[in-house]
């Protein structure tokens, strides 16, 4: 089977032809590498939140307030001067790749620490710690804060750190979680909630799936899951499910969007696999049931992954509810296996993860909506990068059914990181780097 694909946009427009899938790998593609690096070095600072904390004494997380301690600092109005001061503190050399940019009239701040600060450390947490220290120092200097009030500024910015490792209550937010919350080695890039991804891509389901797929598959590379034959397996999944290779996802959604169901998307997936001779009839049973064999197992998995995403967009798009995504992933692959006699996406791991996912997201347990899940979660971690792109797409199509809405969990993440082109339109960025 050929490992050359054409990359199409989220609108079905051809972007790049004859692309070797290995040029899509996080180890080679410059746009993917920029997305990963910018994810590690970027944070959003809620300047309006800092101003409110200082003026009310509410800081360090929920239900925490120091009565009688107020500082009336015009942080938002002075965002220009503060951003200049923060940049001088954050940068390593004059003219390096440090970025400090006020947004939303000074209510928010995008800070990207210089690459040198990341390459000289072992973790990505420098983006949060360096920014927190710089913002603290800039405010202290700008308002000539004395030693008695400086602790208030520190608490308003660092939250309840070090009492809480994760800086609870801090107005500084990154896409990545702290390493202590990872399920295991290499899970950092998989520890990004689906709501964040949907917010960053402005609820564009195709781009949300693409950005999520880039994070998920880059995580698989990092944890050693894409070595040898597994590299092709994962890259085909990234290409077809995440980056709309050969316009497969777009065409199947368009074909089934108006009147289709999960079952009709299965028909679209299988018929295309037969047409491309990815699968052929192995034997026919006495009842006439046809058992298929995969002539290219990795390519069959890629088609199953693309079909799962297409079914998600058709079904969740029809209901405008992210809650459908677990059942869609489960039963698309369950019926696909019964239709062909072949394993579903990810050799059953996606289907298995979906069973637990439905229970934990909104069934008897009901711990939270799909949007707060990620590939690092104890339930969804078992799929090797193919589940969460579907969840990100479903969340993008949701019309308010979630217990934890995008607006409540990811507003500042979307407002700030959505200004970065590669994050907002990852398919276009990856194709442009080829």
TrEMBL record:
Pathway listed = One-carbon metabolism; methyl-coenzyme M reduction; methane from methyl-coenzyme M: step 1/1
Record domain Methyl-coenzyme M reductase beta subunit C-terminal: where: 186-431
| The keyword Transferase appears for this protein | yes
Q: Which UniProt keywords apply?
A: Methanogenesis, Transferase
The Swiss-Prot or TrEMBL record lists the needed cofactor(s) as: coenzyme F430
Q: What EC designation does it have?
A: 2.8.4.1
Q: How does it assemble?
A: Hexamer of two alpha, two beta, and two gamma chains.
Name assigned to this protein: Methyl-coenzyme M reductase subunit beta
Give the species: Methanolapillus africanus
